[in-house]
């Protein structure tokens, strides 16, 4: 098996070759190591790599993905005994004392965890450029970001290091990298996949565990393996009686009613090429017998942004405090990045009343969307408002860094609210990616499909959001598009052709 042949295979195809003894597990693992090591200097996707003698001890030989290499995300996807730093110097010495339930299910499925992928510090940003490890680059164009926070995983899959990689999504962190890297990225329904042990909820229920893949069938079959309630979980998804892998081979029973919106929820600009791609896909759906209708955003986008960011501020503050408490020494300013420290400071000023009020809005938005879906099966939007930023383009300026230092020294974070600087920060942080947060707040499943292009000609995703518990409908829609001319070929990516 050549390196490029390995890179072109999805997990299902690779398993077929393994079962038919056309290739051995050792050969497959060697190809994965060669690509991870050979492409590291160019992409910087992987931050920790396990040794060959370690990895085969963990894999179940009889799982449906037995022998398939896998990369975990360096945030939330703990593997016992391995480093888990969340991209932060504050956790540079952290080793997991137990494996996450998500990881256990990945192991039971037969995957072989090769290591962990790069993330922005604490997975807080939509670009993967942590100071601790440096930026991950997009295999389609090394001058731009693969997105975040699952940017390392996206770059690894899009370059053929592994066919599937771990990801999680608290505000778009599966869907945004999938969009920028031409992959399939499904954020499951709240409570569909495990988040423990040690916690019953991540980001107040906004964050769910999932994967990034090249094909719909890989996404469906992996979801079959990682789905199911966890005893300590705070939320439970509606039960699905069936197999997602069977669903994608089952035709839709009726025409779909699809609501389409390409306007930014927070009033910003949307790339013209992305808008056109959405409408071209909508027209194709109509040719296939479905009904697509333009609608206004069913929920106040500014309220979504504020509610999301209030949680974001509070969770950052709580994370910094928790790290200090667990290690017996408070986190110091120099141990985290300036933006992280600012979010921590702002989070300390959020009142209990404000936090609860914003969380109540999540429930109100969920009710609004449930009512909306009485009329529409799917909600169709862009994933992002524009193509990926250049590497370093969104880094804070020296002036902004000085402002953060000033706020930190004087404990003047309340002044940011008085001068509307927090509202500006919310708008600026979500301007490129305003479409994804709604599904995190409402708990709905949403998927990014590689069926669009941005103005620079790079891949762009179109997002479909379904009612809670209806991943099956998203996967059926994805399978339909995968057979259409709209599907972007991941193998156009130059890294897929490299022999390493």
TrEMBL record:
Q: Mind telling me which InterPro entries this protein's record contains? A: Amidase, Amidase_CS, Amidase_dom, AS_sf
- Gene Ontology MF: a single term: catalytic activity
One Pfam family assigned to this protein is: Amidase
Could you tell me which residue ranges the Amidase domain spans?
Answer: 27-475
**PANTHER family membership:** GLUTAMYL-TRNA(GLN) AMIDOTRANSFERASE SUBUNIT A, MITOCHONDRIAL, TRANSAMIDASE
Entry's family note = Belongs to the amidase family.
This chain belongs to the protein called Amidase
